[in-house]
Request: fold
Amino acid sequence: MYLNLLHRIYPGSGYPFILLQQSYAHELGLKVTLMVQIDAMQDPSIVADVKRFHEQYGDEIGLSLSLGYDSPEFRERIGGPAEFLWLYNTSEKRFIIQLGVDYFRKTFGHDPRSVASYHLDSVSVQILHEICPSVEIAVAGCFEEGVKVFHGCNNSWYLFTEGMPWGPWYPSKTHTLRPAENENDWSGIIGVPHLSRDLSLSYEGRNDFFASHPANAQRGLANVGYEHPYDYNLCDLYRYQEDFNKGFSYYNVFVSAGWLAGHPTIQDPSEVSQKLYRDLLEYFVELRNQGKLTDLYMHEFASWYRQNLPIGTPEVYLAKEVLYGSKKHYFWYIDPSMRVLVDANQGGSIGDLRPYVGRVPVATGSDQKELMIGSYPYVIQSIYRTGTQHHFLDGSRTTLLVTHADETLDLCACQTRVDQIAREEFGTRLTLTPAQLVFSDGLEISIATEYFFTNGAIQMTRRLQQSSDPTVSLNAREYLKGCYGVTEYPEDMRGITLSVDGDHPQALEYIYGRRVLCSPNARLVTAVIPQITTSVRLESVTPAQSGCAVEGMLFSPYYTLALDYILSLDREISTWLKLGYAK
Amino acid sequence: MAETRLRKVMRCPVCFARENDVTLMNNGTEYYCVHCSYHGNAEQIAGMYADIRRKYRWIQRRVTLDELRKL
Reply:
């Protein structure tokens, strides 16, 4: 595992606790990257400390750009209450970044190689790269920070960076959170997330309760005083990913000292917060001593990443939930064309799907169309859009619907687990444990699901593994209910087109008209979503009996794509889910 | 002194159970929430925090890398 430990340097009453953090890291011999704010660079005693840390311990000095711009120049040009960098307009971003780089050069006599911000939008990255090409790496987003954290801070935290990678990535030029397709599409800076988040609980709930920073777990009440095994479990969960990523895993801890001293969302005494932080650092040293962890300065990691993980390298993550003890499995896949979540606990339903292949350009800021919403759009998000059926109809998701004697069972109701993950030359293969279904007439069957992920396409193969009646022939519907959006509320679906081919090819443009298009012997059912320049398509690999596209209505606004098959013991069914760029 | 004051800042346990951080106000007699109708003293709030922690059935369980592989 590669580790980046970052400390933010800022002036004020919390400064003694920054020194405490530093003393822990130095006593333990850990490499630290200091992210220094503009306001800190105006305090001679802090600057002297930072220079001493660099000279005595080798700490890397980087530039923090999230906040802390207070200076005569800033007050004269911009002023006003504090705002995060990515929310200013373009000329203000340019001014602030130039100000930070100028202060850094003047204070430390060289250019920074590492930068930090909770988020750096595409305009900020472009300006930063232009003004300071020495910057190789930046903290550039918070995995799945958005709607849930907004609600969790009593509707007051306006940071929306959902739909991004959970680990280091090559930010594209037009959307920082989208991994670049190639060198030409790359912004020129390597991105790392702000903290390593729990990929089960950050999907289900708040990412700022369940992350690599012990105070986050304290905030979520996930410790009992000095007992905090979850912090170690999460670290090991990231180490576990080495099994699926050719030995690579990455972890970072980026801590503001305020979390160690009386933070209002932490009920533990400060001594507990400080001890938990030190404990985690000691665990890193223990792992390092065993040869299982390498701590690096940010710029060192940037060099390693650039040399060893080329643009376009897919990453996978098997999330096993380890705090509630539910033993749930989630599987994540990411490459420059898409980010996918498979929810094994719901029969292998796709719970989150981000079609990067649509290459939606997004920047945040007061002069941008998206304003503060920096997230990459989804076409499936089952937490925000219901997923499996509850009160009324279902929401966005995929599933297999199996019909026997007028009774239809939904694979979403079956708990499965991840059985195998295979990284192959042309893609990644995921096999789930079989889903067990029992019909009311006593028929018992088990269905195995296999996914194959490759460059904007997901092949879904279903096999009837066992049946109490070996001669049974079942109707099986491969089903996708899709939408698009970036928050929990529905977007305007008008303008979307649905189509089906086959014996009776048909198409419609969305007017929430509840229309159903069905065609025998269909091979393709397609939705084109011009709002996010994306197409979503189901394409049969094995022959389908028919295909359907269903237009939503205002009380259930989403589109449905479906292909119907016959499933029997000697006959597997297979379907591509393909994502494409479309106008 | 500041440390003593800060440690008395508490979050509403009812809102927290909905994953919402709402800092409680104190009227001199008890804590009260401005987002919901909860009110109570520090001891009651601590008891509700303990109840909330019960949902984390593995909160005190160390899951090692080897155990993760088998989980």
Summary: Chain B has four helices and three strands.
